[in-house]
Amino acid sequence: MVLERFRLDDRVAVVTGAGRGIGAASALALAEAGADVVLAARTEDQLREVAAQVEALGRKALVVAADLSDLDQVAALAQTTVDAFGQLDVVVNNVGGSMPKEFVRTNVAALEGAFHFNVSTAHALTRAALPRLLKSEGGAVVNISSVMGRVSGRGYLAYGTAKAALAHWTRLAARDLAPRVRVNAIAVGSVATSALEIVTGDEGLTAQMEANTPLRRIGEPDDIAATVLFLASPAGGYLTGKVLEVDGGIDQPNLDMALPDLGVPE
């Protein structure tokens, strides 16, 4: 029964950045597969909306409004999860991001900030969760990286560098934690979330992005959520240290297309 391998009955997952977009869709996918979910993000109202949808699926949801750029707060999610549910089986490190800036405006603080928000947060939560993940029968970590970690694009120096680091962190952590905890990542392509509104709000940029994508469409959060479920569940039980490219088939070395407002260095 292959479909049974996608079940997560009575497992417990923590999802960061779960108030909207990929995080919310991932939390709902895990709940639909049978998991109880801890939902963490900054905006409580958004989290409560997602929690209501989780509960409508017959699973439990715990809302944790927190500043996930604070490493102490993100690490505390592990103990909060155990206190509420008595276990922790799946970690989805989805929080991250960085505003596009051209090179001349990307100072050291901006570069370090991108690394902190995209890599250090994942490291802090995974380390804090590790004792419980080791006790799980199927401990799994899923990191949300980006296509910008392997291709170039003007304005994405800090973000792309951080996401490339997260992808390699995934490979290294997987080797350290095998065989008891699996660690994988998803290199996400263009997905219709609030972070992409600069593109989806412009018909010309949307058309250009679709033309650069072999599948000729911008992805949906559910496209990523389905992959999160695969990697978190027994269905992905023979994968670790892998970065799955869920990007509509992008294979070009650069995506210099958007962000026309970026200045040209003098």
From TrEMBL:
A Pfam cross-reference name: adh_short_C2
Domain Ketoreductase intervals: 11-192
Record flagged with keyword Ribonucleoprotein: no
Keywords carried by this UniProt record: Oxidoreductase
GO function terms (MF aspect): oxidoreductase activity
Kinase as UniProt keyword: no
InterPro entries documented for this protein: KR_dom, NAD(P)-bd_dom_sf, Sc_DH/Rdtase_CS, SDR_fam
Family membership: Belongs to the short-chain dehydrogenases/reductases (SDR) family.
The name this protein goes by in its record: SDR family oxidoreductase
Organism: Aeromicrobium ginsengisoli
